[in-house]
Amino acid sequence: MAQLLRLDASPRRSRSHTRTLAGEFVARWSASRPDDTVIRRDLGHEPPPHLTEEWIAAAFTTPVDRTPQMREVLAYSDQLVDELFAADVLVLAVPMYNFGVPAMLKAYIDQIVRVGRTFSFDPEAAAPYTPLVSGKRAFVIVGTGDAGYEMGGPLASMNHVEPYLRTALGFIGIEDVEFVYTGNDEFGGERLQRSLDSARNRVAALTPGREAVDVAV
Fold it and tell me: How far apart are CA 11 and CA 95, in angstroms?
């Protein structure tokens, strides 16, 4: 039995293609593996707080030396990290904003990339950074206004979503990452529908099993 952690980064609701596709992904997965559990965190509507000077001071203080106030400052981050460690599979629904990830997702990444928790640091070592997260897979559904941002596409050089997420997730030890793209949101019509159909085919290929009926977005 596995646990899925679904992260939605779009502030849109029913109009969000990434939410819809993530919902279909999870529904198909659950239909095929009904004993698996799903945890959902809605970053788009409940964004994590940005880092503060107090957070940084607490995170870079050894646990034994932290004050109660420092532990309180890190409590939310600890919750997110514990949630991450408990998950076997991550499903990220990510709209591209100005060629990068939404601020809500960036804030989440800042909260979980933690020295001593998700990576270790030894300044004397030849390779000073060691990932502390292992055995996890990630599926990232990216929605874009135009099309062709996927690797090898005509707009790939403007895509700072995939390289950033591969770097950040890989840094803590999550290297098995698959991307699904849907585009043409700004154009709509048949171009958008073709892109959505292609993304659904990709989702189906990544989630083998019978068709799911109920889809929660």
Answer: 9
